[in-house]
Amino acid sequence: MKSGRHFLQIPGPTNVPERILRAMSQPTIDHRGPAFATLAREAIDGLQRVFQTTSPVVIYPSSGTGAWEAAFVNTLSPGDTVLMVETGHFATLWRDMAVRLGLQVDFIPGDWRHGVDPAVIGQKLVADRGKTAIKAVAIVHNETSTGVTSNIPAARRAMDESGHPALLLVDVVSSLGAIDYRHDEWRVDVAISSSQKGMMLPPGLGFNAISARAIAASKSARLQRVYWDWQPMIRDNAAGFFPTTPAINLLYGLREAVRMLEEEGLANTFARHTRFGEATRRAVAAWGLELLGARPDERSSALTAVVMPEGHDADAFRKIVLERFDMSLGTGLGKLKGKVFRIGHLGDFNDLMLAGTLGGVEMGLAASGVPFRRGGVTAALDYLAGNPL
Ligand code: PLP
Fold it and tell me: How far apart, in Å, are the Cα atoms of 258 and each of 90, 201, 366?
């Protein structure tokens, strides 16, 4: 038994605030009764505002992976081509899912240090002269494995300029509630997200925000779908109900999470995360360590991936941090295993939590014998002090 609070500084699941824990601890109620309908409509309406959309948003009792699958099976048919971009581990897992569902994937290769290049998307779409081969472009907004954020409006512009009608599917699993995401303004067709990151909830809810074009596509899409079918969800949700038993207590939490985000103001929430990202990167620079993200304009406000110096294992360092300081940092995923560690700075998080987190990293670096310069914490604190919210 360790005293004090564990520091859960992985980039999801994130720390669940007391208010949300308390909201979820209410008694489970009849999901066919009037009290539930009120709760469900408030949760769904609130979630629409967080996605910045007036289009339908559906909520599954699933993780983000289920919401990925729902996006594909509702909009596409066997053999359809999807244009995807190798931004990192999650883009690669999503590609693997597309292949297993019987889709053709044109996977634009990447080095896991950059976001989506809109020009390449434009070229691929222009090269599809008949404009019928590529049915969808599927990209990850915030690649949680690398700490790199892609420019979705620029990708949308490239699609518009090509005059290609492909649907735009965007994974906002680790950006929703942390990094500005505007579903309607950016004309995204399906956004995929989940509860356990910027939304500050435990894992267990998967989300799709769905444009009118995506709903139209779902009428003729032929991939097999039963549980993930949008139609019964949208039909029943209209009156505040679900076709199957919903995750009632997580919906209490979701309603509370939306209240918290709206009390802060979404713009302020995003600004808070931007500031944490900058402070963390200043700490990394002062330590003399390397950021995984190659381009300053693509670095994530939700997490920071730090490259371990040659000859040192990131997981050995993480183990020391966990054992000595009771802090969980994110592991390197896929081909980044052992090579990077990730600092989550999203969700229910404030200046002193960041100070503690960076203090734990700095002490962990010293305890692991990793070559670094001291002063990262000071650099971050100076930035925070000089740039109050
Ligand atoms: N997409 C991104 C960007 C993620 O970060 C994750 C999980 O961390 C997923 C998809 C998969 O979500 P889940 O693990 O909730 O199924």
Answer: 26, 10, 40
**pLDDT above 80 for 1:** no
Confidence of residue 2 (pLDDT cuts 50, 70, 90): confident
Q: How far is the CA of 103 from the centre of ligand 1 (A)?
A: 20
**Does the bond joining 202 to the residue before it have cis omega, within 30 degrees of 0?**
no
85-143 per-position pLDDT tens digit: 999 999 999 999 999 999 999 999 999 999 999 999 999 999 999 999 999 999 999 99
175 lines ligand 1 (CB under 6 A): no
Q: Which domains does the chain have, with CATH numbers?
A: 7-14+266-386 (3.90.1150.10), 18-262 (3.40.640.10)
pTM (two decimals): 0.98
Per-residue pLDDT of 165-210, as tens digits, reads 999 999 999 999 999 999 999 999 999 999 999 999 999 999 999 9
| Closest ligand 1 atom, residue 65 Cα | 16
Instruction: Give residue for tokens 């009037």.
Output: 34
> Has residue 264 got a pLDDT over 80?
yes
**Residue 12: CB within 6 Å of ligand 1?**
yes
Give the orientation angle of helix 376-386 with respect to helix 351-368, to 10 degrees.
170
DSSP 373: -
User: Would you say the CB of residue 87 lies under 6 angstroms from ligand 1?
Assistant: no
Distance 302 CA to ligand 1 centre (A): 14
Do 355 and 383 contact (CB within 8 A), yes or no? no
* Ligand 1 midpoint to CA 90 (Å): 7
